[in-house]
TrEMBL record, chains A, B:
Keywords: Isomerase, Oxidoreductase. This is Bifunctional chorismate mutase/prephenate dehydrogenase. GO terms for biological process: tyrosine biosynthetic process. InterPro entries: 6-PGluconate_DH-like_C_sf, NAD(P)-bd_dom_sf, PDH_C, PDH_N, Preph/Arog_dehydrog, Prephen_DH. It comes from Aliikangiella marina. Gene3D superfamilies: 6-phosphogluconate dehydrogenase C-terminal like domain, NAD(P)-binding Rossmann-like Domain. Residues 49-311 form the Prephenate/arogenate dehydrogenase domain.
């Protein structure tokens, strides 16, 4: 059977909605299984690896403990209360993965002076220069910095991006990289400096601007319900992106924003540009404003059209999802009126 | 047949992808037809209305000409070259809809001194206070300001929001409102002042911040490809939202941003808040930063969780769509290697 054989003409809107959910669920199922069929990498399965995850009871720590467990490793979690036995727990490990909150990463790494010479030392912190430098200083053996670009809520690592910063004796950690690869993770190999430079935009500036935007709305006493009732799908989505940040813990966002003081300069340049462009609005200089627009459009190049296309598809999905939800709530309202 | 009867177990990922597209297309088809089945409103069909759309050959003008045509009105478009005959074209109209670019709206309205006393004068400009005030001044009859919250690219007005600012003799424009309603538009009735206050955030601040963010990326010489390769789905989407603006004409965005000089003050307060929060980062004052976060979280209230939920659903759809596109391009790469 193929997609062409299925005829949809008889289905109602509600049934089409159900079918869409079924298709999405089935796709996720297939993608999940195709990502895990070959999950034990050849080299990892040859001999059982002993893995210690420091902070393995944290949310992302648990995720990696499960992953290593499933692939046949012998996994131990090392928590705050276990440091008395740390020497014994750590010394025979093939991999020590540091999965602790970002603000204690450096001090935890500094305690790892007892690893065996060929033990791989790795971390999963959102910044890379400082943790990688600290690992290289403390441990004379193989070192690799990782940054999983996803939260603990994802169902599988398949299709998710993991940034890999190889720092010393890469051959020793090749089994770990192969293992992530065999699970379907997308691996991006860069230096720690390149990582931090990119993250200044991907994480720090975006998170920070979003926090400011939320504070601004609150302090301007904006009426959310009114705004939503008058929003196009695109603005509704943008507002949802702001609100979703505030539904989560402030700790992680604060730590990411504060982790690298070097970013303050870049964020000050953002204000300068904002001020420069706003003065064009204030002096009604449309001509220069459009020139700035054109320069940036040129910089985006082929990506401008590609992004327009990509976001339009998603927005039309958002509109369809919303409108079927609105219909549902309309029905509820009507039945309440009975 | 219902959605439950369709079994998906035999379908490949590629077939599921095709089916998903078919379902979306069929849903859009059904929604379109359900929006137009009852398209002629009772009062509009009783007698043929004579409608003049000024700027009816513009993109959104064409959209409204089609809509009025389909509902049985007698529609004339009045363009630049037709002003010599304007007196005759306009004097017997029941509705004159101003659909010209925002920066000429006011001057065009000022020419409409010859309408008959019961002719409805309406506009579709993105700002409302100035056009509505000008219409009230020029025309002694019924006046209503409209703001369609969608672009000319949408397939149907069904499910789209239209802001309605009633200004004088609302009973005379009730047939127009009923007509929009019968097409499935979501009508939001507010005053012109309320509209402009909300749009300061929904349109002006968001568009302006997006322009600045794009300029900032360009001037910081960010490597888009590297950023994309290291982006989580959420950041990819946010970047796409920036790029999509630059794929479009700068005229409309410039006019919207420049239309209401009152917004400059509000945008300056945004800079003040940005600077205040950035100084907390510079002085490493995490405690006060988290307090600001908590205050804003409290302001979002129930919407924080709702937005998290809503955007998460959309992001997981975005991830699935992307990953099937990535698979396609991987296949292309492989076949090129042969």
């Amino acid at each position: 059977m193929s997609a062409e054989d299925i005829c949809l003409d008889q289905l109602s809107l509600a049934d089409l909605e159900k079918l869409q959910q079924k298709v999405l669920a089935r796709k996720a199922e297939l993608e999940l299984s195709s990502g895990t069929t070959n999950k034990i990498s050849p080299s990892a399965s040859e001999q059982i690896q002993k893995v210690v995850v420091i902070g393995g009871e944290g949310q992302l720590g648990q995720f990696f403990c499960r992953l290593f467990n499933e692939s046949g490793c012998d996994v131990t979690s090392l928590e705050k209360q276990d440091w008395a036995d740390a020497e014994q727990i750590l010394k025979s490990a093939n991999l020590v993965l540091v999965a602790v909150p970002i603000h204690v990463t450096e001090s935890i790494i500094n305690r790892l002076t007892m690893l065996s010479a060929d033990c791989v030392l790795a971390d999963i912190t959102s910044i890379k220069t400082i943790p990688v430098e600290t690992m290289l200083k403390v441990h004379p053996g193989p070192v690799v910095g990782l940054h999983p670009m996803f939260g603990p809520g994802v169902e599988s690592i398949s299709g998710q991006t993991v940034v890999v910063c190889q720092a010393r004796m890469a051959a020793h950690s090749s089994w770990l990289i192969e293992l992530l690869n065999s699970y379907g993770a997308k691996l991006v190999k860069v230096t720690a400096a390149e990582h931090d430079q990119t993250m200044a935009f991907v994480q720090v500036l975006r998170h920070f601007s979003t926090v400011v935007y939320g504070c601004h709305l609150a302090e301007e006493s904006v009426d959310i319900e009114q705004v939503l009732s008058m929003s196009s799908p695109i603005y509704r989505l943008e507002l949802a992106m702001v609100g979703r940040l505030f539904a989560q813990s402030s700790d992680l966002y604060t730590e990411i924003i504060f982790a690298n003081p070097q970013n303050v300069g870049m964020m000050k340049r953002y204000i300068e540009r904002y001020t420069r462009l706003l003065s064009l609005v204030e002096t009604n200089d449309k001509k220069r404003f459009k020139r700035e627009f054109a320069t940036t459009r040129h910089w985006f190049g082929k990506y401008a059209e590609q992004f327009l296309d990509e976001s339009s598809k998603l927005l039309s999905q958002a509109r369809l999802t919303r409108s079927s939800e609105d219909n549902k709530s309309d029905q509820v309202k009507e039945s309440n009126n009975d």
